[in-house]
Amino acid sequence: MTAMQAVVPRALVGRVRTRVIPRMLALVFATLVPVASGPLAAATAEPGVEQPRAYGHSIGDVLEQTFHVEVPPGTEIDPASLPRRGRADRWLARLGIEVAPEGGNVLRIRQRYQVINSPPEVRTVMLPEVTLKLVDAQALRAARQEMADGGRRDDDADAATPPTHLPAVATARFEAWPVTIGPMTPETVLARAGLDLFQPDRDPPPGQGNLPAVRFAAAAATVALVWFWPALARTVARMGRQPPFKRATRSIERLHRGGGGAEDRFRDALREFHRALDAAQGERVFAHDLDSLFRRRPGLAPVRDAITWFFARSRAMFFADEGASTPVSETDWRTLIDLARQCRRLERQS
């Protein structure tokens, strides 16, 4: 028996092994886990902010920053705590901000900055810190209703929000974020490899030496076309529109030379001349209304008797009883052709 066994009873040794030692190990593990998980917890919270690239920016670049904010039920973000559009500092201007639901109680807040100045050398600037205030949703709606009932108006949509006297239920704070911006060109340029301050003149590419003259000629032609276009359009339309008696004369002569039944061809010729009369009058012409035709077209007065004959011959051809119509003779054809030619000459003189 050892000295230790003599001093410490066997039951006590067993109790230490089965109870005390496991409890001590659990206590040590519980103490070490928070220490080890501290940096991990901070890392998992980082996706709540999407930051722009922290380097390599210059004037004109647009930087986008996105926040993911969890809004507890019954609360809303106070619109007055949202960042405003406008100049943030000497180097940055806020172009705008967008708020959109992302799912659940999470809102996505995206804001864009633009670099508006060029430093003489590489410089670190800070995207401003943002602190969002969460307020009671019912109190915010009541404040909005009060503002609407009071008739308050504001040209700025972001400014047309309830006053910020509502108590904050919680806040969401996002730290400032550093980015580096650089100059467009170095402060001094080495006078080598073609980087002198003044470059020699360069000849224009071939074929572009007379480009100003070509542009002036094109502009002058365009102005002339626009100026004279109405008259040109009327002239083209008049050239493309064939006079009615000219068209009728050609059709009647073609029917006279054609083959087939003489009566059918003569009826078609009468129809062609009647269409010409209607076109000259601008409306349908009837035998009982010839006075109206000659009032509107006094130039046709010399052929009044011939036109009267035309209507009488048409009545005989189209409206006479079957078997009572007068046969078509060569004299009828010559009379109709002469009438169409006379009307064509009178049409040219008018």
Question: Quick gist of this model?
Answer:
The protein is α+β, with helices and mostly antiparallel strands. Helix content is 46%, strand content 18%. The strands form three sheets. Strands 1-2-6-5-4 form a five-stranded antiparallel β-sheet, with no helix packed on it. A three-stranded antiparallel β-sheet has the order 3-8-9. The protein has a two-stranded antiparallel sheet with strand order 7-10.
What can you see in these coordinates?
- There is one protein chain.
- The protein has 350 residues and is an alpha+beta fold.
- Among the domains are: 48-180, no CATH class; 244-349, no CATH class.
- Helix content is 46%, strand content 18%.
- The chain has helices spanning 3-7, 10-45, 137-149, 211-240, 244-257, 262-281, 290-296, 304-318, 330-349; strands at 49-50, 62-70, 75-77, 86-87, 92-103, 106-115, 123-127, 130-136, 168-174, 177-181.
- A 5-stranded antiparallel sheet has the order 1-2-6-5-4, with no helix packed on it. The chain has a 3-stranded antiparallel sheet with strand order 3-8-9. A two-stranded antiparallel sheet has the order 7-10.
- A hairpin with a 4-residue loop joins strand 4 and strand 5.
- Helix 5 (244-257) runs antiparallel to helix 6 and helix 5 (244-257) packs antiparallel against helix 9.
- The termini are far apart.
Please outline the helices and strands.
Elements: H1 3-7, H2 10-45, E1 49-50, E2 62-70, E3 75-77, E4 86-87, E5 92-103, E6 106-115, E7 123-127, E8 130-136, H3 137-149, E9 168-174, E10 177-181, H4 211-240, H5 244-257, H6 262-281, H7 290-296, H8 304-318, H9 330-349
Antiparallel strand pairs: 1-2, 2-6, 3-8, 4-5, 5-6, 7-10, 8-9
Helix pairs in contact: 5-6, 5-9
